[in-house]
Design a protein that fits this description.
About 25% of the residues lie in helices and about 0% in strands. The longest helix has 19 residues.
Amino acid sequence: MEQMEKRKKYNIKPNLSQANLSEADLSVADFSEANLSYTDFRGAILNYTGFRGANLCYADFSEANLRYAKLIKANLRRAILNEADLSEADLSKANLRKANLNGANLNGANLSYTDLSEANLRGANLRGANLTEANLRGANLTEADLTGANLHKSKLYQTNVYNAKLYKTNYREALISKTNIDGAYFTMPEKQPEQQKNQYFYAPVGNVADKTEGSQNTTYNYAPEQKQSLAEAATEIQKLLDQLSDTYSETEAEQKVAENLANKAKQDPSFKEKLKSWSQSLLSKGTEAGIAEFAKEGAKRVIPLAMTFLA
């Protein structure tokens, strides 16, 4: 404690740049404002360790355990965090520009106001993570799990969320531009029969509109009753058409959504049958009554068009 006070008094910043601390147990240690650039932390145990304001540029944390670590305002530019465990860690206001977090565990982590521009988060676990006002410009979130994550007011410009899981993700007031959400999973059934596991409804779009503000993902679950499933699917389709409307003409947007529905049906026989049933049901006036008025017309054009691509 006395040494910490002296550091504050004389503004002493420890310099451990390029040190080899791999596999060391440094839990609860305090590296606040230290220079740790290029330091080797591979496989290190860093639970509850403090890195507030530290310089960690190019540091290697591959497979390190950073559970509950404090990395507030830390500079992690181009740091390597492949397969690192950062669950419940606090990375608020940190600089993670061009950092490599491939397969990292960020479950419940605080990434609010964090710069993740051009960062690699491929396959990362971001379940329940707080990404409020985070900068994700050019970030790679391919196959990342963002279930229940908070993306309120975050910036997603040219962000890649291909095949990412976005169940119950909050992106209210997020700024979304030229973002690739092809194949992203927006919904998941609450109860899945054993034989239907991993048969999710793909978000049938390629790139969202140039700018979408104030959008809030509305999740739905496929119900046993077909009428309800069709109504929910029609609502989701219409929202996706609305997102594409600023970039594409109405006809082009409908074709893109229909093509992606058809592609999903070609890969998933059970979804193909569901699509056929929806197409038939749209001809029934009784079923139409269960669909929200704003979504009815879009579904009536897109779903039959998807069936023509399957013919």
